Amino acid sequence: MESLAGKPKDELLKKMLDFKTGKKPATLMHQLSKGYTDEQLEQLAAHFAASQK
Ligand code: HEM
Q1: What mean pLDDT value characterizes the chain?
Q2: Domain limits of the chain?
């Protein structure tokens, strides 16, 4: 699977919010993303966007 590190924050956040709302179908991530508040998902997106590959 492609690395999340260094991906744009907006792209990561949109994908996770789409998993959470069910807009983007998934095998696991729709369940995992529901465990986080929108603010926590934003913090995760910022974290991975700032990480180096
Ligand atoms: C045990 C931890 C995790 C597992 C097993 C897991 C598993 C998966 C799987 C299987 C997918 C493909 C979509 C699906 O079928 O669900 C996926 C995609 C994704 N996951 Fe996770 N995930 C984990 C944790 C996380 C965390 C903590 C984040 C937060 C940043 C995250 C962010 C994403 C994103 C953004 C995608 C979309 C990747 C893309 O389409 O480029 N995942 N994950």
Answers
A1: 96
A2: 9-50
